[in-house]
Amino acid sequence: MLRELYIENLAVIEKASIGFTESFNAFTGETGAGKSILINGINAILGQRVTKDIVRTGADKAVISGLFTDIGETVLKQLEEMGVDCEDGQLSLTREIRSDGGSIARVNQRAVNVSLLRDIGDLLVNIHGQHDNQILMSPEKHIDILDGYAGSEELIADYRKSFRELQHVAKKINDLRKEAGRKEMRICELEDIIADIRVLDITDPDEEKQIAAELEVSKNAVAISEAVYAAQLMLSGDDDTEGISELVSECSDKIDGYTDIMAELAPISERLNSAIIELDDISGELASVLDKLDVDPKRFDWLNQRSDDLRKICKKYGPELSDVISTLEKSEEELEILSSSEQNVKELEAEKDRLLAEVSHKAKTLSDFRRAAAERFVSQVTGELEFLNMPSVKLVVGQETGKLTQNGMDNIEFLISANIGEEPRPIAKIASGGELSRIMLALKSVLAEKDSIDTLIFDEIDTGVSGRAAQKIGLKLREISKHRQVLCVTHLAQIAVMADNHLLIEKNIVGDRTVTAVRTLAHEERKYEIARIMGGDNITELMLENADELLSAVK
Questions:
Q1: 193 half-sphere exposure, CB direction, 13 A CA radius
Q2: SS3 for 382-450, per residue?
Q3: pLDDT by residue (tens digit) across 280-300?
Q4: DSSP symbol at 55
Q5: Which of 70, 251, 312, 443 counts the highest number of beta carbons within 10 A?
């Protein structure tokens, strides 16, 4: 529960430290005293959106800090899952709002994202403001209220998992069908590409270079033959001319007879003999080259045609031959996928039928669960409405079956009959402001039994009510406060007297500045405040006696 709230430089509140009891805490004060500012401050530490306008004029920043104690085990476990440590079941939430628009959120003095602060706040406090009554005016919100009461979270989570799978499969089928026309065009395009490349039977990415090299040789075959023949003739000679090899052999013979006499000639002779062997080997290889240089005209024409084909295919799918081979492989792979897509559609259709049956079954289970919960819900809320001085109001949960959505197949709307004999009609059409407030309080009272939130805040729940109805609201809030901490901003004495802790929000002029203060009232001060609420500023003894009587009656 919220044990203490510290506020500094928040609008007209310069500095305030407010303590709360664990039961019923009521705030009163004149219009404009700053009650809404207090609620804004609490909203700030709960991670709600704030603006720099709430920073007190002239201050660098506003600071709001809340201390929560006696946190229940269920919430402690949820906080632990968030990575939030609560030593001794206590937790401190702080929000700093700078005048330049920036803000800092802290949990136990550790800086955190505002989103984490919001998640934590959702576990600790439930704030009911006047805008919450609009939930009753919006039928699409009613299903969330019923589900919150029914505790259908697991059923909904299981249903939504299957529903999302169904949506995913349906989307895939739809996408495939949309692409059907484009698919046929693409298949034709891929078949043309594959046929275009396959006809050339390309396997080696270096073939183009090899063809170019062979062509270069073929084009220069005559000149090369003449050069090789001349070189080979110079080495080996002919009938009329001695070749280099024969001359080197004669050189060797000249000095070979003297190697025994002069040792230096022996290695030279060996080198000459080696040279003769190497020259004869070169002459043989040149002769082999001459044989190969006998160019086949058909081969030459084929090389030219192949080179031209490879150049054209590279221009279309290249620039390199390796790119052409890659294009063929990718095209064949894509064609296989597209050709099998029709089979995929059939498989997906079967999966869609299976999921539709599964989702429909789960939706039916969820609907039956809601129907059973609605009976209990109506019974409990009707009891609360009777207590809140609305004995003739009959609540009906309208449950109609519609198309499958993420919430199931139900359309839920709360209907009421305000008077005996009248047909139930939508709340938005017949409920007054005061009736909306009491209906919402009845709902909050019933729902409070289902959650683990320790602190409930009611901001002007008394809008549009007075007299006995207001007294009943006060009694109901007092009853709720036996199990939950209640904070309530009110303008009615019938509600304020029910509080265990009465806090006054008052505006004063200090120097040339307006300052709002919050203080706890003792019994005598409460009498004057209750009298002021009932009769205005002209407080009489009779009004004080009436106020004292109201306070004593509650005790």
A1: 22
A2: HHHHHHCCCCCCEEEEEEEEEEEECCEEEEEEEEEECCCCCCCEEHHHHCCHHHHHHHHHHHHHHHHCC
A3: 888 778 777 766 666 566 777
A4: B
A5: 443
